[in-house]
Amino acid sequence: MIEPHLLACAPEASADDHPHEECGVFGIYLPGADAARLTFFALYALQHRGQESAGIAVSDGQNLTIYKEMGLVSQVFNETNLAPLQGHIGIGHVRYSTADSSRRVSAGPFRLESALGPIAISHNGNLVNSGELRQELFARGVGLTSKSDTETLLQVLVGSTGDTWLERIKQLMEKAMGAYCLTILTRDALYGVRDPWGFRPLSVGKLHQGWMIASETCALQTLGASEIREIQPGEIVIVDKDGMRIIQGVPAGKPNLCIFEYIYFARPDSIIDGQLIHEVRQELGRELAREHPVEADLVMGVPDSATAHAIGYALESGIPYSEGFVKNRYIGRTFIQPDDHLRKAGVALKFNTLSRVLAGKRLVVVDDSIVRGTTSKPIVDMLRAAGAAEVHLRISSAPIEHPCFMGVDMATYDELIAHRMSVEGIRQMVGADTLGFLSIDGMIKAAARPQGNFCVACFSGEYLFRQKAGGFVPKESQSGAGSS
Q1: Residues 350, 328 contacting (CB under 8 angstroms)
Q2: In 53-212, alpha helices (H)
Q3: Strand-pair partners of 171
Q4: How far apart are CA 353 and CA 227, in angstroms?
Q5: 60-74, 207-221, 290-304, 454-468: least confident range
Q6: Rounded to whole angstroms, how far apart are CA atoms 121 and 148?
Q7: In the 3-class helix/strand/coil scheme, how is 400-443 assigned residue by residue?
Q8: Which CATH architecture has domain 278-329+339-446?
Q9: Would you say 292 and 436 are in contact if contact means Cβ atoms under 8 Å apart?
Q10: Which DSSP string do the residues of 116-137 spell out, in sequence order?
């Protein structure tokens, strides 16, 4: 088992009890274009993957400039601070902190000067051997300004011995253990890198005479990309004056795409492994209805993340679907913190019930997950106050019993309600009439990933990596990436 000190630092419990993705990354190479402006709009499309900080780095072929700050994309950037970011090559980053605290010094992208010239990097994921890598850097006299894995990756990359950035990237991939999707900006090129296990999605698409790389296809589609292709595990994408090419940086390992990309993280209009996320979520809801049927009058979802799941449940069960909540989509888009009274109101700041729709009804309430259990009871209480006759809570993922070490805030063992309580105990605590979780087999069946396996460690406790003296290695025997 991975040691407790490697658990991600969880933020204070709030009205949002979902798991949180760490970040979204983007990169663009487009001669003659304003890379910073296009990156801004791509980050807007990836805002759901991180809301704590945003940053953009660009190069004009000679100089590499950067701007980053805490806040949403729309709060960080304006015409004044975008103007100095001149260049046709760029990378961007939106962040949600897990392994490091929420502070500007940890915001991406990270930039360094090196013997090969300036370089900047954006990273989505989490390393399990960051401690080992940091100690190696310290032993060489390299200082670090943060606890961010991104800075560690950049220092390891810059400190490698290859004569070209491609050689150094390959060396980095041999050393890094865990989840990493990278966009890397040099003076005259853009690189995209995906870890050999494929924990996080990464895609490349063509735009006019250039190319873009993004965590999700929705960002590429927003900017009008064509020829969109998923970057496969262990691959490196290189874009420079000679065009785009893809090479295998290290051999692919056991496929381990995080199943929460399908359940919650990815935007509904994104495509992963050829599957539209919205359709997969409907199928998760259908499978949930097959596993946990109940007599009821209406099916409703907790907006917006469980809407597609709820529609799937309704289609399979034959129970009518209806909206039951109105969501205030702007409540989280301010730096003004609520006072104690409003903080206690919690969920009520985000949702209002449609009481005339719900009064007297037996409700199936579908949500995508329960992590700490901090919002389920207030939601059930609100529905009861609106006059619901019965509340049957259905969750389109399995109980989350274990933390994640791959860049997702899943809380600690003590905070995970499903680690501490049985399903019946959770039902009693939240006050639902019945409670049903989708099984692990049901999730995998619904997702129907044609390419292979998922990472379901937060449900099963079966982690890909095992601990050994001095670090971590994959459990399976494989050559190449991370082999020992």
Answers
A1: yes
A2: 73-76, 79-82, 130-139, 149-158, 165-175
A3: none
A4: 43
A5: 454-468
A6: 12
A7: CCCCCCCCEECCCCCCCHHHHCCHHHHHHHHCCCEEEECCHHHH
A8: 3-Layer(aba) Sandwich (3.40)
A9: yes
A10: T--EEEEEEEEESSHHHHHHHH
Q: In whole angstroms, how far apart are CA 375 and each of 15, 128, 349?
A: 6, 30, 12
- Same CATH topology for 4-256 and 278-329+339-446? no
For residue 13, what pLDDT is reported? 36
> How many alpha carbons fall within 13 Å on the CB side of residue 294?
21
Q: 348 in helix, strand or coil?
A: helix
- CATH class, domain 4-256, is alpha beta
Mean pLDDT, residues 213-226: 98
The pLDDT confidence band at residue 479, using thresholds 50, 70 and 90, is very low
The string of pLDDT tens digits covering residues 429-447 is 999 999 999 999 999 999 9
Rounded to an integer, the average pLDDT of 192-220 is 97
CA distance 458 to 178: 15
- Give the pLDDT mean for 251-255: 92
Give the pLDDT confidence score for residue 374 in this predicted structure: 84
| 325, two tokens | 């909540």
Confidence grade of residue 347 (pLDDT, cut at 50, 70, 90): low
**Nearest-angstrom CA–CA distance, 267 and 200:** 14
Q: Which residues are catalytic?
A: 23
Q: Which candidate, 103, 57, 98, 96, places its Cα nearest to that of 77?
A: 57
Name 399's Cβ contacts closer than 8 Å, sequence gap at least 6. Answer: 370, 418, 423, 426, 437, 459
Contact 351, 323 (CB under 8 A): no
**Those residues with Cβ within 8 angstroms of residue 72's Cβ, 6 or more apart along the chain or in another chain:** 47, 51, 54, 333
CA angle 452, 453, 457 (to 5 degrees): 170
DSSP 263: I
Phi then psi dihedrals of residue 328, to 5 deg:
-85, 100
Domain ranges in the chain are 4-256, 278-329+339-446
Give 3-state DSSP helix, strand, coil % of the chain, rounded to 5: 30, 25, 45
CA distance 181 to 24: 9
CA 408 vs CA 129, 312, 400: distances in Å: 16, 26, 12
> What is d(CA 393, CA 356) in angstroms, rounded to the nearest whole number?
20
- Rounded CA separation 484/465 (Å): 12
Amino acid at 203: S
Which pLDDT does position 351 carry in this prediction? Answer: 82
Strands 119-127 and 89-95: unpaired
Q: Which residue in this structure is represented by tokens 């909206």?
A: 323
